[in-house]
Amino acid sequence: MAHDATHDHHDHHGAPQGFFQRWVMSTNHKDIGTLYLVFALLMFFIGGAFAMVIRAELFKPGLQLVQPYFFNEMTTMHALVMIFGAIMPSFVGLANWMIPLMVGAPDMALPRMNNLSFWIMPFAFALLLSTLFMPGGGPAGGWTMYPPLSLQGESIAYVVFAVHLMGISSIMGAINIIATILNMRAPGMDLLKMPVFVWSWLITAFLLIAVMPVLAGAVTMLLTDKYFHTNFFNAAGGGDPVLFQHIFWFFGHPEVYIMILPAFGIISEIIPTFARKPIFGYKAMVFAIASIAFLSFIVWAHHMFAVGLPMGAEIFFMYATMLIAVPTGVKVFNWVSTMWGGSMTFETPMLFSIAFVILFTIGGFSGLMLALAPADFQYHDTYFVVAHFHYVLVTGAAFSIMAAAYYWIPKWSGNMYSETWGKIHFWSSVISVNVLFFPQHFLGLAGMPRRIPDYNVAFANFNMISSIGGFWFGASQLIFLGVIVHCVWFSKKKAADRSWEGAKGLEWTVPSPAPHHTFDVPPIIHDDELAHGNTDH
Amino acid sequence: MTSGGIGRSVSAWTAGVVLALWGGSALANPEPDQLNMTKGAAEWSPYGMHMVALWVCVVIGILVFGAMFVAMFRFRKSRGAVAEKWSHSTKLEIVWTVVPVIILIFLAKLATGGLTTFADTTGSEMTIKVTGYQWKWRYDYVEYKGKPVDRVGFMSKLEESSDRTRQLKSNLDPDKIQVDGYKTYLLDVDKPLVVPVGTKIRFIIVGGDVIHSWWVPALGWKMDAIPGIANSAWTNLKEPGVYRGQCAELCGQDHGFMPIVVKAVPKAEFEQWLATQEDEAKVQKAAQTAQTTPATAPQG
Amino acid sequence: MNAMVDTQMDERRKRARRTAWIAGGVALGIFLLSILQMLKL
After folding, report:
1. Helices first, then strands: H and E counts in chain A
2. Interface test with B, best of A63, A75, A461 (most B CBs within 10 A)
3. Which ipTM was obtained for this model?
4. Per the CB < 8 Å rule, is B226 touching A149?
5. Would you give the distance in Å from CA B10 to the centre of its chain?
């Protein structure tokens, strides 16, 4: 603790020397950010390995590799690991690294809690992944954990505790982010001068605090139904299985936006940098994020159009869902307008951002189609849905994270990554990801349900194409790993403080690599140094 | 190699694309390389709604992505483009808020109409109760033309040759399983649901153990089969035929292996079939009075 | 100069802690509400 005390005062030494002290006992936002990002990358590969098993089994009709039950474990674990282990922690990692730098704060507001919120995660995932090695097997009822099916599994208690831990970690992370943004900004950094990324995270953090406890409540009820003879969801005991779906999706839909709003923020930082032109309609962008966040609370039952809701409810949720297209459209149009009249160059972060705008919009289009309840009676629970959410989560969220990694890695490591290999990674990923997911639209429309290990021969060709795309996309991510390792440890090219010609914002005023402690003294804010300094529009 | 052979798939591809874009959607059951949703075989179909939404998306997509590509070409630094300073335009922002709203109102009106007709199960001439079990379906004929049906009900599960072929490492060829030239691997059952054409049929759908979802694409909808809840939906099939579907809600290890087959026959043929079933049920009842069958026990 | 900055910083950290307690309280409240509501208490 004496160690922390010296940190809090102005003893300006660098990072602690011992490995254990530096990484396990860290209270430094940059080190904890790095821990989050490394953890997320590890989970990305573990979740990716599960996806490879799925695509290998679906390579051709007939069961060649795994039993159906194990296949279901893979689909369930792939989702849980990717959502809670890869996408969310990497956004939290980016928040940890960048928010204090972007608002001119010396660190997160609650550095010790920051350490705790990270170090819960490895234990949560050890608990979750260990179920795969247990006699009853891992969870196989889908990541949505619908009872009564999920209650048939023997591993439900492990899953519930793992979800509780992840939830606590996320809530503490969100509290820290809110406290930092609201209280730790440098004098002169008004709310409406903050980068869009910071805004997007502020709104996301509120979503997290509002819905993670609801998920915790829902899974707690699953646990008591399984082991303590309650009947929340047990029809035979007077409960209602559909009730779980309502609670789950009340969490689940905002959760979807938790995974995309920070992506909007990232893209809104990168496109202006490489277009060398300020973001179009800054206030509209912030307002669009806030309205999407608000709408996310009143659309949950669009995941449940086929459970037999009353018609009035279906109409309400359909209209509310369609309404989301308006602020989302505003964001896409604003990104295009930001590029219009700019002076663009196409480094790897920009390439990923442009791919994000196009491919996320395709995912948005299929989302609009899914919002139409009558058509959803046909689309629901088919590969059309699988294609839809992979377009928004892989080419949306994951691409934005990759864009962010390429964009800020010069600041993190002090070195430039290899532009050639970055571009190879980009083109390989963007082509393969479409080979992987685009044919899944056709499969779904033709009538292939999701979450099945084997299928009729009519679906054979597109499944084979999709699997080839899947292996290719998986292999492409090894290039990503290679580029990162090369950049951090082997690159000879030093990064400038302002690593990109058009980059604006406080994070580019500190040296590269960012020293262990930055902004111990709050910086003087010059509006023209900020990406969004002019608030007179 | 089996159906997955790449060589064959390439040659089948061109034919498949032409077929799928043209008449493929008129076919009721999944066809190789099918690209689009089926038009269905029933009175109610979301196909029109789907196509309208698809074209709206395609047109907006072309406009937005077109503008992006023009921007990426015209405003490159390498072509000497100099960044402009403007960063907002109230007029434009109003336009691209209002125009989508108008398009959405149009789509919403269309969808509300489809939803209203779908939700209207009144005026049906026949009722069938569908129960989902791990991992098979049960069909009970409740009433036909206002008269209760006497004890006609049966289980319907994956037929035997598909079941043998789908075992892990069975090394049996899924392509070999055919009925009338259609490859029915995993899409055929031992005993199909027989229904009359030109009749508004009401389905009562419940779950026996966990949640399932009863889905036949040619009927145009799916409906969850949930324990403790009786969902209803309707169909009115226009033409005789065999319509195939599957369980659409994850229901455990054999979720992928509980197909649905609906055999639509002319009314006269159906009435004959129903009478035979009723007679058989009477004979069976007489033969096994001592034995209680689970068939008539209320489920849920 | 540094001393002045430090008092400002302490003040801001204090406010941040209060924000955190409020946010944490809200989260706990939502958790309890979601279960209590299901118990129909």
Report:
1. 20, 0
2. A461
3. 0.89
4. no
5. 28
